[in-house]
Design brief:
The structure is a homodimer. By secondary structure, the first copy, chain A, is α/β, with parallel strands linked by helices. The first copy, chain A, is built from twelve helices and eleven strands. In chain A, β7, α7 and β8 form a beta-alpha-beta unit. In chain A, α1 crosses α11. At the A-B interface, α8, α9 and α10 of A face α8, α9 and α10 of B.
């Protein structure tokens, strides 16, 4: 499996991308990486590492799409940007998937192999198995029809990526009863309850999210994005408050040292870099969006996710769903 | 200040209500409590305590509105319910505020002194000062106009309850830039930015919530409710995962014992019972909704909030805002 990596996307590019590509090759998560970006810069950065040179190829690109760029305008204008070039490699079949830690809006716009308006599906640590949540920000003007598509795409993702034969799908809502929520969510509940192709188990509230009792959580992009960032923020704040309190008390400090393995286990479990990037669903192709703040480990895991999806039937099944309704 | 307390609302009623009323009287959070509910039951429960009998008066009510009751129907039908009677005492001026841990929908419906469609404002623990968030669930089919009202009401609440002379108001959104969010939020941003009566500081993301950098967070009822429950869920899950990991390792167990004061400080800080109930805003009166799972401490704090608001200019200022637009 050959994966195209936009080497200029992350906040600290190209360092995490280059190191992530090296890690990915060493860990054999894919057979070859097409590293797209400023040639001289990438060559210099790669020279720092010892690796199998046949497995990373530089594809020169002279421009960069920044976080400030308007997605629609810049994708058209910056034809020689690393992101557009990486996606083109995928479109032309030279790569089986593409990974970028750059501008999400630009990734969506330049994904010209779009089947329907895409959603962003992310994987979430829970007390049990990782859980898929979508949409977490692609579509902030959502309709009931979009929610139904997300339910189906999430179900396919869980089935073909996590090998769940009958994934449990839930709707994120303000209560468990079918009468809860606004019109869009109430209608989605009714339709999902009747859909025999989906194992819909009903509504789920925010407080149950981390229990991990369901495989896929469906919501609109506005709610999903606010929710995802809230989870991140609460986890960070709790650890921060804990640290501040511990500092004030030397007995607690010793205690914290003794319980250190517990903290580092939890930190790793809550760490988004362990889960790779988010998948754009609704495409006839594999686009992975990594966090702007990605480190090398996050990039490696995003490449791993892209390669694993390329190796699965997910894209084929997505196409069948949109073309034949199955 | 005299407060009416629906004694039959909480999951374990009337025990937490009766004990909460006793605590409120002992802590002098108000001058008198009108305890509304089944007379014999309340008399028996009160007999367990030693207190100043002139300060708690039983107001008999033969019916109870349950969590399963349809708010609109039951408020009309159950005229002799503890909730409706408590609100009537407030309407007639016999109490300056009302507290219930019962059906939120019924509380909204029976609040016939409504000025506009109410919002639920809750107080939130942060790393700095408590923060007001509204709406957290009253209005799931929200408009831009509602968001603007919430901004104003939140601003008044912060000014007259927390004594912030110029409270910082933020909009909960999926990014900081004014271009972020859906149409409703984008429009609200534009209008708030131009409103000289509000100290609007821009958008805030979920990950910044617990930093406590703003005084009031404005959002629609659907997003607010999902977000609030997510925060609750994440906090509970983190402590649970920590506990499970600590159990597995005896060194960590000793460590946890030594750092125990830190855990209990954080638990208290994150504990909703410390913050009293949520306030229904947009009313010409004081309605406090407590959590169904309230204990006596939560009830006492809800009474304290009601009394403190009754003692402030908040309701007067709310009326002026809706009547004269100031």
């Amino acid at each position: 499996v050959q994966i195209a990596l936009d080497a200029m996307g992350s906040d600290n590019s190209p360092n995490p991308e280059v190191e992530g590509a090296i890690l990915a090759i060493k860990d054999k998560v894919c057979s070859k990486i097409l590293l797209v970006g400023e040639e001289a810069l990438l060559r210099k950065e790669l020279a720092k590492y010892y690796y199998d040179k046949s497995k990373i190829e530089i594809i020169p690109a002279s421009e960069v799409i920044t976080m400030e760029d308007s997605p629609t305008k810049m994708v058209k204008r910056k034809k020689d940007s690393s992101m557009v070039k990486a996606i083109t490699l995928h479109k032309e079949g030279k790569a089986l998937g593409v990974v970028s830690a750059g501008n999400t809006g630009a990734m969506m716009t330049s994904s010209l192999f779009i089947l329907v308006r895409p959603g962003i599906a992310t994987t979430f640590p829970t007390m049990k198995n990782p859980q898929i949540i979508l949409d977490v920000g692609a579509n902030v003007e959502c309709t009931t029809a979009n929610l139904l598509q997300y339910a189906k795409l999430g179900s396919l993702y869980s089935t073909y990526f996590f090998k769940n034969p009958k994934p449990k799908i839930a709707l994120l809502n303000i209560g468990e009863e079918s009468s809860k929520g606004n019109m869009m969510y109430k209608k989605a509940f009714q339709e999902l309850a009747q859909d025999k192709g989906i194992n819909f188990i009903g509504n789920i509230e925010g407080k149950q999210l981390l229990n991990g009792d369901v495989d896929v959580v469906v919501c609109d992009g506005f709610v999903g994005n606010v929710m995802l960032k809230t989870v991140e923020g609460v986890a960070v704040s709790i650890f921060k408050m804990m640290k501040e309190q511990i500092k004030k008390d030397w007995v607690a400090k010793i205690g914290a040292l003794l319980s250190f393995p517990v903290y580092s286990y939890l930190k790793k479990k809550m760490d988004h870099t362990e889960y790779g990037g988010a998948l754009l669903v609704g495409l006839n192709g594999i686009s992975i969006v990594a966090h702007g703040s990605s480190n090398a480990n996050a990039i490696k895991n995003a490449i791993r996710v892209a390669a694993k999806i390329a190796d699965s039937e997910f894209i084929q099944k997505t196409k069948e769903y949109f073309e034949k309704g199955i």
